[in-house]
Amino acid sequence: MQSTIPAPTPSRLRRFASMMYEGVLLFGIVFASAYLFDTLTESRHALTLRHLRQVVLFLVIGVYFVTCWRGGQTLPMKTWNIRLTDLHGNRPGLGRLLLRYVLIWPLPLLAALAVQWASQLTGYASTDLLIVFAPFSIFVWSWMDREGQFLHDRLAGTRLVDVRSTRVHQN
Predict the structure, then answer these.
(1) CA pair distance 88, 159, nearest whole angstrom
(2) Residue ranges of the alpha helices (H) in 123-162?
(3) Comparing 46 with 68, which gets the higher pLDDT?
(4) For residue 110, how many other CB atoms are within 10 A of its CB?
(5) Which residues have CB under 8 Å from 119's CB, separation 6+?
């Protein structure tokens, strides 16, 4: 019998570690997808068909995440004992997972836009290097959220839970 005590949110450090691991896996997925795209379109330059490439990569990354989230975890989430659930502790439906994927993007894209603006304002091209911090902008909301959840999870009706604690609460 399961306890009704909600599972706690994983620490920001564990979510950060999972995110870094995810980046390593995504590098391979993006590399293979871009290589296949370049082969099929006979592109010889990264800016050739740039917008189509971005759409294809957005879709490929989305397929990866949504497919993994249907089972509750990506490989890095399994490694760091993190699970994605709906607000009742169940596996989220496909619509909720798609919504979560789309809602992840606005904050990092706004952060990237801010980096571009800062680079233009200062005139220092090296300011563009700050783009590496854009994906981590999703953590900002977690310091204001009462349970430490991400904004996209709040909006999508999902949450990240600590799997280690759910094992302890089961009889």
Answers:
(1) 9
(2) 139-142, 151-156
(3) 68
(4) 12
(5) 125, 127, 128
**96 is written with which tokens?**
């909720």
SS3 84: strand
Token code pair at residue 53: 């490439």
What is the model's pTM? 0.88
d(CA 110, CA 154): 19
Whether 58 and 110 have beta carbons less than 8 Å apart is answered as no
Q: What is the predicted pLDDT for the residue at 125? A: 86
Question: What's the one-letter identity of residue 76?
Answer: P
* Coil, strand or helix at 143: coil
Q: What SS3 state is found at 79? A: helix
* Alpha-carbon gap, residue 92 to 156, rounded angstroms: 10
**Six token digits for residue 89:** 């502790």
Tokens at residue 35, please?
């290589």
